[in-house]
Amino acid sequence: MQKHYEGLEKMHLKSPINDLIKSKINISQGKAQVNFKNSTSMRDALGYIHNAYIFMGLEEAAFFAANSLIQDVLVSNKSFELIFSKPTKSVELIAKGKFEEKSMGNYIISAELYDLDEKLIAKAKGIFRRSKNLLEDIKNYQ
Length: 142
What we know:
The chain has 3 helices and 6 strands; from the N terminus they run H-H-E-E-H-E-E-E-E. By secondary structure, it is an alpha+beta fold. It has one domain (2-141): Thiol Ester Dehydrase, Chain A (Roll). It has a 6-stranded antiparallel sheet. The chain is globular, with a radius of gyration of 15 Å. The chain starts with a helix and ends in an 8-residue tail after the last strand.
């Protein structure tokens, strides 16, 4: 399984979207953690991190937590619900995704975003399903 996790981590790190958040990722069985820094280009008019980046961090952590359980294809996001707790100006953020349950072919994943003081910024719940996209066909997974 370690090779699978490393392939997923490589896929994330080499994806064009990671050029925006310049994150680090750690994946294990049913879990993923994404650490990223809040740059000035990610902030809204009040100086807080924009909600789009909060969503991105949470969705990435949930996506890879789900995909850690599936070794042949990518998962696809069926739904994703966010609850914002508070705005943040924290420079570093940590998104943690965790497998909760599998039901009727759906992988239900929870995710939470924290600042460096371990204060909850936002939480989410996502539902993911197997896609038809083979991992072996993804250049950066190999």
